[in-house]
Please model this.
Amino acid sequence: MKINELLSSLPQSIVRGDAVSLSDSVVKKILTFAKLKKGDVFYHLGCGEGDAVAIAAKEFGVKKSVGIEIDKAAADRACKKIKGVKNAEIVNADILKADISDATVLLFWFAEPKMVDAMQKRFKKLKDGARVITIWAPLGMTLPDRVEFPFFVSKKPFRRARSIRQQIKAIYGTECIDFTASWLLAERYIDALEIVPGEYRRFVNMLQSMVIWINAWNMGVACEDEVPPPVQTYVGILKTFFSVDLSEMIIIKEHETAHI
Model:
């Protein structure tokens, strides 16, 4: 099964992250990392029925905590979790249209390029000093102000990276990504989000690390000059034992002769 076939077979709400909720411990970790304080106005964009809005209001004591959710059923369930909390509210609306002008801290966990591009335009209208929390990557080509992979804080006015290498160095502390780094990054992502059951951990770590390395290779920021043996091995394991074929993702360069 090609990777695009695998993704298309999954519920799109899961692929987009719409149906994924962060555990309370992860939410607290993220909000602490973002230095959420009592004077902040916190927004969780696409809050689903998670607890981030309630946690920001009750445990961090923010001035106002708002969740925006387009799905009415999920918004209704989220409302029940903040019942009686005066400084919290859930808004049933599209994040592309909802009023976020008073926000000082926003949690934005979307990866679709069109959504990211559209929201970046909206974030530029925020007041200076507003912080946007993202997971897995900074906003587009933005240079993050704080990094604790896989969590990022980008502060307005946003700084744009001159190149992908500059952004990668700001994120990882190095201008290229090798196989070992891709494996460790995937491992840190899995540990930080606490969403992969133990029995699936090895498979997810393998799949995600390969995707990280292949993307780095295709963008010209992999440290290796050739597809390394470990990548060939794991791509082969995924294809042979899990029927997941990543080989078409790899752009074979003119000098590259490895058989994937």
